Amino acid sequence: MKEIFDRIVPAPSLTEVTANRIRDAITTGDLPLGHKLSEQRLADMLGVSRSPVHDALAILQSEGLVNISPKRGSYVFTPDLKEVDNICEHRALLETGSVRRAIARNKDKLVAGLQSCVDEMEEALRVNSSTDYTRGDLRFHETIVRASCNRSIASAYKRTISPLIALRTHLFTIMNANIERSLDEHVELLDACKRGDADLAAALLEDHIGHLIEAYRQELSSQTGFEDAITASR
């Protein structure tokens, strides 16, 4: 039967909209790591009641972006070094599995998407825009996951990536000190995908994410105030 209607896309709930706004504020650094979150203050800023804010914080807690303590209240997450390792390891498992699946089943679309991201990153480096570079970097890795065409993987990745974006924002200086090496690693990964070498692509991804772990550990270890913030928020 001929379709005569466009599919209806349900509008997001007020809780979802609220969670999206708070998530964006955390990942961009407007709400920094360790920041105390007042439900009433957030409600006033967003122009909503406390109920959707309360539910939104519960969603963000499940994503690892917010820590909620019955006695101390709610805070933007402040991970210790072990948590950083766990987050990055989870990401590596999802991305290496995705790139293998994408090369086997969706190689042309994968390569086209990654090439677009690399072009964006090269242009950002040329004009010295770290913000645009980061955007292209994130889109590169999201492209790998989307090309796997596996909704479960994509959903798990979405829950994992927000804390990493927030961490990258917090560790802005050291991450961008290695921006040229980062670009080289993305180009190598693109070349491996073009050749259809899934084993090499997965190995390069693991190495790339391993370098991120090294950077996180180095910076977190060097920030004496960061450990104090971790203790204060728990």
Automatic annotation (TrEMBL):
All residue ranges annotated as the HTH gntR-type domain in the record: 12-79
Cited Pfam families: FCD, GntR
Alphabetized UniProt keyword annotations: DNA-binding, Transcription, Transcription regulation
Gene Ontology MF term list: DNA binding; DNA-binding transcription factor activity
Protein name: Transcriptional regulator
